[in-house]
Amino acid sequence: MARANELGEFLKSRRARLQPDEVGLISYGGRRRVPGLRREELAQLAGVSVAYYIRLEQGNADNVSMEILDAISRALRLNAQEHAHLHRLAHPPRLEHHQGPPRLRPTLQHLLDSITMAPAYLVGHYTNVVAWNRLTSAIFVDLAEVPPEERTWTHQIHLNGDYEKRLGDNWLRVATGNVAYLRFRSGQDPNDPHLAELVDTMLTRSPRFARMWSEHQVSDVIPSEARIDHPEVGHLVLPFEVLHLPNDPDLARLMLYAAEPGSEYEAKLHKIAATSTHLSSSDLAARE
Questions:
Q1: Residue 278: which of 146, 174, 155, 159 has the closest Cα?
Q2: Residues 6+ apart with CB under 8 A from 108
Q3: Fewest CB within 10 angstroms: 67, 72, 187, 266, which?
Q4: pLDDT for residue 36
């Protein structure tokens, strides 16, 4: 993952989305050579010298203060997650990385296996699925049939045509959210070798991913809903919750899905659960 000037690319992408009249500057018309604000205009809004701001866009953030970053963030009208991302890019954290497969406490797998009427899975920091229950494979992707190195949601969203078909009209929202999360995570841990390898693979194999990556959208995963066109039961709407696991450093979150009680979607889940022969991660481990 090329990180030569992540800070500069992020600043340019955010500057490009603002127009002078949006921030109270006078636009004198005529064709502008660059989309959005000029560097001189952004520097004026942030109250810093043009030369100083140019150095930041060149990736030189040595000794930049939090106050200056805050001023630039306000000038660029960054949201809370973008604001935090800017600070992390300017002052990259240094984290240690565990070697080997993700560590999974047996009680977490037991928890997943006990959830029989809704999908549930554990995911790592680069969208790698570490453990899952049977309904996860039955509804989303048959993870037991996926090679371990491709057992990430990023692979499945951007490279698995069958899964894209299941997502239907919802694919673009899911795909852009996935890329925005990878950007978010890259700011949290810029030296993660697994994340770097994943992004490089996607940039090579998926032009659509590369286009989304270049937009520098930044967002963590938040509770929402999954919309799936299932080949057996038709359309499913499944609200989900995101539970973080601070005591498990190799795991990013536990994802739990549930249909509205008494709804047609709950009945469809029960039907799939009663007939599915898909494997959970513990089933797969026992078979191997």
A1: 146
A2: 122, 131, 245, 248, 251, 254
A3: 67
A4: 86
Q: Which long-range contacts (CB under 8 A, 24 or more apart) does 271-276 make?
A: 271/232, 271/233, 272/135, 272/138, 272/139, 272/230, 272/232, 272/233, 273/116, 273/117, 273/134, 273/135, 273/138, 275/232, 276/134, 276/135, 276/137, 276/138
Q: Do domains 6-90 and 106-287 have the same CATH topology?
A: no
95 vs 285: CA distance, rounded Å: 30
What does DSSP assign to residue 31?
A: -
Count of other CB atoms within 10 angstroms of residue 216: 20
Strand order across the beta sheet in which 224-230 lies: 129-132, 120-123, 253-257, 234-244, 224-230
Residue 183 to residue 181: CA distance in whole angstroms = 5
* 1-52 pLDDT per residue, tens: 445 588 999 999 999 988 887 777 766 455 666 778 889 999 999 999 999 9
In contact, 278 and 116? CB cutoff 8 Å? no
More confident residue, 106 or 99: 106
Q: What is the CATH number of domain 6-90?
A: 1.10.260.40
Please report, for residues 39, 53, 111, 212, the alpha-carbon distance to residue 215 in angstroms, rounded to integers and kept in the order given.
18, 21, 38, 5
Distance (Å, rounded) from C-alpha 168 to C-alpha 34?
36
CATH 3.90.1640.10 fits 106-287, yes or no: no
Q: In the beta sheet, which residues pair with residue 238? A: 226
Q: What is the pLDDT of residue 31?
A: 61
Q: Which of 71, 210, 217, 192 is nearest to 127 (CA)?
A: 192
3-state secondary structure of 132: strand
Residue 35 near residue 230 (C-beta atoms within 8 A):
no
Alpha-carbon span 75 to 148, nearest angstrom: 44
Domain boundaries, the chain: 6-90, 106-287
